[in-house]
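Quick one - inputs below.
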Amino acid sequence: MRPMRALLPVEEAKAIILGAVRPIERTEPVALDAAGGRVLAAPLTASQDVPPFPRAIVDGYAVRAQETFAAGQSRPAVLRLAEVVHAGEEARAALVPGCCVQVATGAPVPEGADAVVMFEDTEADGERVQVFKPAHPGQNIAPRGQDIAAGASILAAGTLLTPSKVGVLAALGVRELSVYARPRVAVIPSGNEVVAVGEPLAPGRIYDVNSHALAALVREHGGHPALFPIMKDTVQSVLDTLRDARGSDLIVLSGGSSVGDRDVMVEALARLGEVKFHGIAVRPGKPTLCAVVEGTLVLGMPGNPTSCLTNGYGLLVPALRVLARLPRVDRPPLTLPLARRVTSPLGRHEYLPVKVVEGHVVPVFKGSGAITSMADAEGYIEIPWNVEFLERGHPVDVRFF
Amino acid sequence: MRPMRALLPVEEAKAIILGAVRPIERTEPVALDAAGGRVLAAPLTASQDVPPFPRAIVDGYAVRAQETFAAGQSRPAVLRLAEVVHAGEEARAALVPGCCVQVATGAPVPEGADAVVMFEDTEADGERVQVFKPAHPGQNIAPRGQDIAAGASILAAGTLLTPSKVGVLAALGVRELSVYARPRVAVIPSGNEVVAVGEPLAPGRIYDVNSHALAALVREHGGHPALFPIMKDTVQSVLDTLRDARGSDLIVLSGGSSVGDRDVMVEALARLGEVKFHGIAVRPGKPTLCAVVEGTLVLGMPGNPTSCLTNGYGLLVPALRVLARLPRVDRPPLTLPLARRVTSPLGRHEYLPVKVVEGHVVPVFKGSGAITSMADAEGYIEIPWNVEFLERGHPVDVRFF
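Output:
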């Protein structure tokens, strides 16, 4: 069992991974109501004005502003009520001099009117409406196209469709649109000791934890995971499985836990493509592997569940988000003080699972083999390779899961 | 058109809403691979030990520790290699005195052995293994059940199933589990001027923006939105629609934009249940309505898209997350300085849509009728009712969408 080559600093590893991943080009149509959280594939140009007509933004009377210029508390402008326009209706006629039209919020302002006076500034007696305040032209009117002008570029390709952007699509009457496809991520477990969940657990065997944790992580970050059967620790098995995984946009291997198993993966990957690195200066998660096969990024994650998942957050998620064209930072970290002194190995970047108790950051790491390390954690902190300890109370950036 | 009653402070409105919503009780089974992001409905007790056997955590030799106590660089303990156990295998026999067993990381430690010595501290020549360092009992062994002990309570009911918790389920071989159902949220548009997306836009009409934006928001926060046809502004139409929405866990109405339309909703809701409030001291979003009908919370959102969506984030999302049993705070806010001075009306809590440009917070509010206000925003800040202005550079908490 030969040792891994020199360990790569984690920032270099991340740069290599991000350099090897290309944003997805495949697109697919989705209906408006499935568009939330997806990424727009083609720029959206407004097909029409929004609002599509000059719109009253208060309840009141549409007037010719100049007829109110001289109005005041003691000498109101007196106008004749020509008609009433509710929201969703249109005036039957243009506004003629000496008249006004009652309009509801959202109703079209009739032709000839250039201002809306609020009820509060008026007094009506049958058809006779007194206006006690001068109105300026444009008052309380949203002009046609004020919000969105027909022909304008509204959303760029690559825009993440948040609820408000879904609202913009709806405002323009868009029922179907083109979005980037969710990347297909092959999740491939390995290890002769690993058994698929649901099968009987023979002596010496453990269940496949990593595939399920990784698949959940992939789904959370815009990917479409495809779970593969457990791969044997032989070069041929790795070659066969990678052939089956062709057409994936990203391939994530996990396990086996020992150096020998890794060598099998490295050998197979070197035959099919280019091994970018093997072994990074990170704790936990040293035996991490990166290769590119026919343009597709392959990440080999450690078999230990905590190592696998911390690298999942630290390395896989950034790559997957680039691939899926999702914004880089999902959630800003929260800076909080450490509940106790923490030591960290020099020369190794550390991902430390933590939880927050009464505003303080408590490490919960129990060893990279312990799945409960991660299950108890609410997030993680990163300790750079050149930091040996952090004092109690030291502020750290917690990245929440 | 009568005015709304006295405006309620937004914090009181929120307290009333949260007091009126009860966490969902309905459960449903899901497969392990659909469990990510769901909420566990029954406490999980470990059915077995994890690891299910004492497990080597390094590659090396399983030994009886006491046989190495006297070992040193110059006088190694000499042991006979009895067998080799790979990961996934079991030793054929218990370890006998004077012997050792080669074990791979993850392999079961044979009976009789109580320590594993790393290869680095040994030298092997055929069956003769020299150990140069004393081992202490338990060294490099994860005892059976160390991570999870059979019978232990592992995950409480109400636990959000993050990827690491999905991993815990997998470690225990759980293939299917019971989770709380996603709340069914009826999303009901109204307003005589509103037209369903996809239908022709008659003069004076606008497309239904709010249903689609709200549905996307509901889906993002664990709800299952059901989009309803556009409700007419009549008491009978509201009564009929609310009858159709029975069985929903939460009902969200939106529009119409004018005071008169609201009165129709208030009247219908008062007949069917209890109106909790109507009108809150918030900008935008004043004409917001809360009622409880047959135990179900009903939120009436303003018709203006920006008002509707800011209240969606400020009031609907907290209520929905309680209902869905999701943790209260999804993302911590990010504190950044304001790019310019901001004024805010005294007496009104303000939700101000913003974006972040070069580390500074830029307001993007263009009026509550403008859907693009929200579309340009990356998040929002809140300005309390008793704050009249914030200076340029003042630190504010940005909540990202």
